[in-house]
Amino acid sequence: MIVALKWQGLSFTDIATALGKHRSTISTQYLLA
After folding, report:
1. Which of 3, 10, 22, 30 could form a disulfide with 14 if both were Cys (CB 3.0 to 4.6 A apart)?
2. pTM higher than 0.70, yes or no?
């Protein structure tokens, strides 16, 4: 998946940012659950 993202021209920073946002979303869902 990360390789595919790199093929699309995304940098490591973009990937890290996306993962960070994903983690924040999961944390929020657990807090609201």
Report:
1. 10
2. no
